[in-house]
Design goal:
The protein is α/β, with parallel strands linked by helices and 172 residues long. It has helices at residues 2-31, 49-58, 69-73, 111-121, 139-149, and strands spanning 40-43, 62-66, 80-83, 96-102, 122-133, 151-157, 161-167. The protein has a 7-stranded mixed sheet, with helices on both faces. Strand 1 (40-43), helix 2 and strand 2 (62-66) form a beta-alpha-beta unit.
Amino acid sequence: MGYYDEFAPGYDELHRAEQERKLGRIIVLAQGQTLLEGAVLDVGCGTGFGLDLVAAALRRPCTGIEPSTGMRKQYRGEQEIIQGRAEALPFPGETFAAGVSVTSVQNFADPAQGLQELWRVVKKGGFVFVSCLKQSNALKTVVGVLGDLFTVLSVEEDRHDLIFVCKKEAFK
C-alpha cells in the first residue's frame, strides 16, 4: 500500500472529480434498482468521499473498506471506514444490501478472490456495482468472475472504465 499511502494527501485533488463522475453514474444505476434494506459496502473506498455521497443518495448507511492507512486518514465524513483488504472482508456472510467498488478491483491483490468475498457479504437479491479500467490486465478476469457469481444486468461504458450492474441471485 506504499503507493497509496504516499499519494493519499493529494489523491482527491488528482482523482476526485473523475471518481465522483463514475460514482454519480453508479448512484443513478442503483436508484434504478429496488435495493434491499440495509447498508452498502464500498470496497476500496480510498479517501472515503464517496461514502457520504452514497449514504445521502441511497438513504442508507455506507461502510468502507480500505487497505491504505494513508487514504483512510484523509476521510472527514460521517460513515465508517475499516482497514482491510477485499480478499478477506471482515464481515459475516450476507451482511450488506449492496456492494460498490469504484475503479479499485484491478488493484486488488487477487481480483477473483475479492469479487468472491463481495459476493459472500452481499445478501441474496442484493446488487453489486463494480467499475474496472478498460485497459486493465485484470478486466478479463473481472468479467468472467462477475458472470460466474452474479447475474450481470448491464455493462455501462465510461471514459476509462466499464461499470457492471450485477445482482446476487438466490440460485447461483
